[in-house]
């Protein structure tokens, strides 16, 4: 029943690609996975194979207080997805304000998803501090911060380690050992990229969960609307993503045992 939140200190780092790849890799590792898109860009659905024309989603309709189950989609990738939905700037801000005022609007559906002890929920959250991440934090087992392997990553390390990129005050101090880092788009042919990755790895130590190489197969996978593990399972990026998923599984608490039927209540089944 763990919740993994995928976060980033800024946009443009491939956070959603990592979220989709991880969800698929965890499913391939034998886990039941539900993906949750909290980012108003509404892009996670494209990585998991939903039609481009399907713009429905839960958070985009939050002011109407809909039943979240009506928006849950079974994707061609074999992963259940609760999409964000198409939203303009005004409606995205309205939804964020509602979550800030009533965190249970988001925390409640996630709690229901996590009621199944075999399920892992992977939430793609907006870049930086957000009302969605604050609402999910009390249930979060791991926050995975995605960084690019470039010079700017070095400058962001103090904010990553302290949790300041998650926001001021309590949220920035809640993560503690829950916070891990993934490097994305490591270019093995660039000395600068390799040097930046090595510097980050040395500095973070065990908080670095893994690194995903720069690979054209990632862009091709998105164009085909498939996770990297489904589109190009033999690619270096797919292997890196599988390694990252394995590292996160090792860091997560072991799955709780399925409930056993009580002889007093024989109609209760595990």
From TrEMBL:
Key words of the record: Developmental protein
At the top level of its lineage, which domain of life is listed?
A: Bacteria
Extract the CDD domains matched here.
Answer: ParAB_family
**InterPro entries reported in the protein's UniProt record:** Cellulose_synthase_operon_BcsQ (IPR017746), DNA_Partitioning_ATPase (IPR050678), Homeobox_Antennapedia_CS (IPR001827), P-loop_NTPase (IPR027417)
Q: Does the keyword Oxidoreductase apply?
A: no
Q: What is this protein called?
A: AAA family ATPase
């Amino acid at each position: 029943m763990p919740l993994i939140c995928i976060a980033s200190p800024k946009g443009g780092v491939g956070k959603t690609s990592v979220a989709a790849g991880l969800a698929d890799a965890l499913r391939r590792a034998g886990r039941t996975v539900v993906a949750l898109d909290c980012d108003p860009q509404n892009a996670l659905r494209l990585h998991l194979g939903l039609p481009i024309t399907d713009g429905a989603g839960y958070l985009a309709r939050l002011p109407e207080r809909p039943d979240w189950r009506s928006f849950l989609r079974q994707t061609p990738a074999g992963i259940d997805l609760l999409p964000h939905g198409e939203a303009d700037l005004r409606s995205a801000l309205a939804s964020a304000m509602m979550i800030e005022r009533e965190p249970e609007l988001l925390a409640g559906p996630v709690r229901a998803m996590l009621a199944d002890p075999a399920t892992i929920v992977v939430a793609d959250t907006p870049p930086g501090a957000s009302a969605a991440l604050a609402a999910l934090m009390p249930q979060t087992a791991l926050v995975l911060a995605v960084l690019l392997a470039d010079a700017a990553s070095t400058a962001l390390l103090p904010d990553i380690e302290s949790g300041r990129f998650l926001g001021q005050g309590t949220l920035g101090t809640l993560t503690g050992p829950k916070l891990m880092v993934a490097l994305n788009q490591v270019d093995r042919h660039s000395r600068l990229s390799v040097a930046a990755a090595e510097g980050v790895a040395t500095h973070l130590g065990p908080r670095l969960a893994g690194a995903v190489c720069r690979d054209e197969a990632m862009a091709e996978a998105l164009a085909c609307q498939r996770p990297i593990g489904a589109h190009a399972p033999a690619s270096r990026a797919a292997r890196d993503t599988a390694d990252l998923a394995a590292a996160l599984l090792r860091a997560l608490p072991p799955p709780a045992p399925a409930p056993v039927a009580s002889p007093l209540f024989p109609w209760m089944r595990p």
